[in-house]
User: Fold this.
Amino acid sequence: MQAPARTRETRQRRVVYETIRTTKSHPTADWIFDQVRTTMPKISLGTVYRNLAVLKNEGLVREIYGGDRRARYEANLEPHAHFICSGCGEIRDIEGMPEIPWETMKDLVGCNVTEQRVEFLGRCAACRPR
Ligand SMILES: [Zn+2]
Ligand SMILES: [Zn+2]
Assistant:
């Protein structure tokens, strides 16, 4: 029976995607797994990883790395910068950053540039020494 398995996969993928889309926290796979498990108790961490890979290949989610070098995911594909706290590893979106005309970077670096990523590092208010 092919159809039910495919339906389940589609549903799992949609729940994984919705979990990422509805948070601003740039979650790790473990966090996503914990969330998804509340509605799909039988899902495995391996299934979550597999769905993350598919969503990434389909261009629906983006993989980013925080201060702790763990992969995190977001569904906000609008150009935006990140602030990464070196204390707690939190990643925050910074909207409204002017984009530099990176399509013309090829002239400078001699390579095809396909994406601009801007990261600011520092300490968030909670981690800043008082
Ligand atoms: Zn912090
Ligand atoms: Zn972001």
Observations:
- The pocket of zinc ion (ligand 2) is lined by residues 26, 74, 76, 80, 82, 93 (CB under 6 Å).
- The beta strands are 62-65, 71-74, 81-85, 91-94, 119-122.
- The chain has four helices and five strands.
- The longest strand covers residues 81-85.
